[in-house]
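call fold target=YqcI/YcgG family protein
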Amino acid sequence: MGKVVSDKNFPCHFGTIAEKKGDLRYFYIENHDLSPLPNVLREFLKLSRENEHNKHALVVFVQPEIPEQSFDYYENYFWNILKYLHENDEKEWNANIPTDPDDPLWEFCFDGEPIFVSANMPAYKHRITRNMGKSLILIFQPRRIFADITPKAIDLIRSKVESIENLPIHPDLGRYGDESNREWKQYIITDDNNPRKGVCPFHPKS
């Protein structure tokens, strides 16, 4: 992962900088055991809050499946991990973040912190920038680290992705807070250029 992110052709230079500065943290899920993950994420968020000027990210690798599984399998696994974290969250949902994923201001929350979570997986055959090898990978980024990233910088990253994949920018990639944007659709985009249909698989506990 570090080698991939450090490559000069990696589209997100913020990720490259974070790797070089040592701001990326890594964790491995083995034998489908999710039980350590809630505490790992809590400790990561504590570290991130104590170093608020750093763009920390937690990169979670799931033990590779043999044989490789389908897109739907990895997608369900991803959402089940978020559901597990939510069920084992010791804090209330952030009061400033809507609980309805269909709200443009929604974001996944844990330990009181809004977090953007993106998935990489081997089932991506066309959206190759989201395929980093044999593992399902979840990248947890506190929403606050994006506060000083300009729209121009985001457009540049997406332009690089477009060039690498030789595909148009995915229609579900929007800007947080825009009326048409749904964050959950960006967590796992489709492998083609079709917008995602249906409702979010994640539902906060009542």
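return ok
Residues 2-187 form one domain. The chain has one domain: 2-187.
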